[in-house]
């Protein structure tokens, strides 16, 4: 499976943005024909699901312009240039919820939209959480909620989680709690 | 939570593509300041996790140009204009794996990358699968694999699933099998 089935014949950068770039690739298909592929290039992201010693999972509720609605998500953020994923995890958890994690374990690296974007998100489970003060960025407006595992189980059944990384992460937490 | 915290003051379409468009919005933040939001507009997608009567889950392995690697995914595809999500589910399952589903149940509607894209993916569990012949599109090159639940459980532990919708869907299937 090491063969690249769609080598790029030529490409152009359509958009050079702040969060992502857009590239248009002309590729060669396995049958020899040419085709176009539109690709969103993203630096990658990190998300953290944690549980406090008294069984609370910190979640953030924020308005997402792309979706035009408020979403309930685990703390997450974009990777900065040169930043290790685990450092982003520590930073975003602290900034968005105030918590500092004594232990972080990577449970998955997932492509969020492989049909058109290269965004890869590293998902961590955090434990040994210490309370602190959130330090959100100037253009971030969010509220922190703390849910129990039981509330999360009910929320999954009611489709309360509309963010893919969050649905996956809380489901993993539940599966571990049950095993 | 009905208040829109980031009303659009002005917007421009940066890119009008085949799979997605890109819009740049100038928005008003809750504190009154202006900010920019880059948004990928996508028509939405559908994905289907199914299990045959003899306990096999059809998966497709395909090269994804955006990620430059082969990914193992549940059958999925973009929604066509005016097409109901469940019709897309029936169509994509048939096209990519050949299976026809006697029953489809929506388990989630998830935003794949709410930080920058409006792609919403409807995920279905399919049952009563009938074997048929795949009918892939001209620029799709994929191979179908059939995994058992045990193989999927092991795969999740080994991080074999690098596609977010797939990781969520197979995890849901496992959770149901265990309950």
TrEMBL record, chains A, B:
SUPFAM superfamilies: Nudix. GO terms for biological process: nucleoside phosphate metabolic process; ribose phosphate metabolic process. Keywords: Hydrolase. Coiled coil: none annotated. GO terms for cellular component: cytosol. PROSITE patterns: NUDIX (PS51462), NUDIX_BOX (PS00893). This is ADP-ribose pyrophosphatase. It comes from Geomicrobium halophilum.
């Amino acid at each position: 499976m090491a063969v690249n089935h769609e080598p790029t014949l030529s490409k152009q950068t359509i958009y050079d943005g702040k969060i992502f770039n857009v590239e248009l690739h002309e590729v060669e298909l396995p049958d020899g024909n040419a085709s176009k592929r539109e690709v969103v290039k993203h630096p990658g992201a990190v998300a953290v699901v944690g549980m406090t010693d008294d069984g609370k999972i910190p979640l953030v509720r924020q308005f997402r312009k792309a979706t035009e609605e408020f979403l309930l998500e685990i703390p997450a953020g974009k990777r900065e240039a040169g930043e290790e994923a685990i450092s982003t995890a520590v930073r975003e958890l602290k900034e968005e919820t105030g918590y500092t994690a004594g232990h972080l374990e990577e449970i998955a690296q997932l492509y969020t939209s492989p049909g058109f974007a290269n965004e890869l998100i590293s998902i961590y489970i955090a434990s040994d959480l210490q309370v602190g003060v959130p330090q959100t960025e100037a253009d971030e407006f969010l509220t922190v909620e703390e849910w129990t595992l039981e509330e999360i189980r009910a929320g999954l059944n009611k489709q309360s989680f509309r963010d893919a990384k969050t649905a996956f992460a809380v489901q993993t937490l539940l599966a571990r709690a049950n095993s």
